[in-house]
UniProtKB/TrEMBL annotation:
GO terms for biological process: methylation. CDD domains: AdoMet_MTases. Residues 49-145 form the Methyltransferase type domain. It comes from the Bacteria. Keywords: Methyltransferase, Transferase. InterPro entries: Methyltransf_11, Methyltransf_Superfamily, SAM-dependent_MTases_sf. The keyword Methyltransferase applies. It comes from Pseudomonas cavernicola. GO terms for molecular function: S-adenosylmethionine-dependent methyltransferase activity. SUPFAM superfamilies: S-adenosyl-L-methionine-dependent methyltransferases. This is Class I SAM-dependent methyltransferase.
Amino acid sequence: MSDKTHEENVQRQFGEQASAYLSSQVHAQGAEFALLQAAVAGRADARVLDLGCGAGHVSFQVAPLVGEVVAYDLSAQMLEVVAAAAEQRGLGNVCTERGAAEKLPFADGEFDFVFSRYSAHHWSDLGLALREVRRVLKPGGVAAFIDVMSPGSPLLDTHLQTVEVLRDTSHVRDYSAAEWLQQVSDAGLYTRSHTRQRLRLEFGSWVERMRTPEVFRAAIRALQAAVGEEVREYFEITDDGSFSTDVLVLWAER
């Protein structure tokens, strides 16, 4: 699949349900928001890039504390939702820009912070995107990446990637902690810390948010029923298909 085709798939998948992501509890809530706010506290002059902003939850959380937030996403419909919600909330320092993570339309050293939450698993080239992050960060600038994380074990990884792509065909990969650390280092960024969280996903809302076709929903449920006990226990799969997954919170510095 070409990059162009992948970009078109991402735009199609998310554009049709942009509003659903604004009201999604999974995306609107999270302990990591307090961490992001703490990072920008006292930096009223800071410029922040919300990379792969989705419905803008990160932007809305940090905008009251900084000078400017650029909400950046591949989906024009998502950005329309962000712009409307920012206006409704009186956040005049939030602006939107459309494009891919692998080719940022910004000059070198434009941002004090780059935050990305639940976006990287859609990027076609993680390493290239991370090099772009480094390029647009000021020296000493800080980046935070929050994303679903692969457990690393081949057995568990195969299950996770399979259910992810069945639910959302624009999915590329959930990376393990080791993969993240290597890619961040290769991009010329220094990892300050990385921690693991757990995220509970209610099956019905998880597939409905992406309007997953019924045939793929049935395939996910059939796979869950067929896997071994070690997979079922790790992901805490329940009878209704709900499950838990790992989330990585990684802080890096240029």
